[in-house]
Write a structure and sequence with these properties.
- A four-stranded antiparallel sheet has the order 1-2-4-3, covered by helices on one side.
- The chain has seven helices and four strands.
- Helix 1 packs antiparallel against helix 2.
- It is of the alpha+beta class.
- It is about 40% helix and about 10% strand.
- The protein has two domains: about 40 residues; about 170 residues, no CATH class.
């Protein structure tokens, strides 16, 4: 007397019970209604949602990238983009300009010659696959933003996260370059201090409107966090 009953058997069974005892018939009808409701409920739970063929789930890596970008935007960045480290341009002439064109050369622990040179930084980048490129708004502190993002990303599992700033460090005046850094948890080198060609890097990643920024200047707002 379950789901195996076919229609004709069920009808004959109903009439047999009706002739025998109306009370029994009512009980049987109640049972069948309850059984039908329970069966429909179970089938509904087992049924998988119908997803159109042209709708594909967002890959986990894309969702992760979007979360990183949104976090940067929430901190005051005007732009943020996850890029492949192979699009980061390295150039020896960048270090040359630091040595013979920047008044901070040799005066800060976050500037050359204390920072990785072009060859060393190129080697470091081989240990990373992607990075978050950011552009902060002019009324924010890009150095604070990249360090905050570095710390946050480490908590999210990006244990190799490392921030690269936009402007020379100003945490100490003067810098304790002759001894040791007073703020190792906050002091980070700039992109240019590590031999990165900022203009070519942003050009490669579609930010041509920002390519004219002068690296390490007070108006420079481009930073980066190496991820994984």
């Amino acid at each position: 007397m379950g789901s195996s009953l076919n229609t004709h058997q069920t009808i004959r069974w109903f009439f047999t019970i009706l002739k025998t005892n109306e009370t029994v018939f009512n009980l049987a009808l109640t049972y069948l209604l309850a059984h039908s409701i329970i069966t429909q409920s179970v089938n509904k739970k087992k049924r998988k949602p119908m997803i159109p063929d042209n709708v594909k789930p967002i890959p986990k890596s894309v969702r992760s990238n979007q979360e990183l970008i949104q976090e940067a935007l929430d901190l005051g960045c005007t732009k943020a983009k996850v890029v492949l480290t192979q699009t980061i341009s390295m150039a020896h002439w960048v270090n040359l300009q630091c040595q013979f064109g920047c008044s901070q050369y040799g005066k800060l622990l976050t500037c050359p010659p204390c920072t990785p040179d072009t060859d060393e930084m190129s080697e470091i980048l081989t240990e990373y696959k992607k990075a978050l490129l950011i552009n902060a708004s002019s009324d924010t502190n890009v150095q604070e933003i990249v360090v905050q993002l570095e710390n946050s990303f480490k908590q999210k599992g990006y244990s190799k996260a490392f921030a690269l700033g936009a402007q020379p460090c100003n945490l100490c005046d003067p810098c304790t370059v002759s001894t040791f850094c007073q703020h190792p948890e906050k002091a980070r080198p700039t992109l240019q201090a590590c031999g990165i060609d900022v203009k070519n890097t942003v050009d490669k990643n579609g930010w041509t409107d920002l390519a004219q920024q002068k690296p390490c200047s007070e108006s420079h707002t481009i930073g980066m966090i190496l991820l994984s």
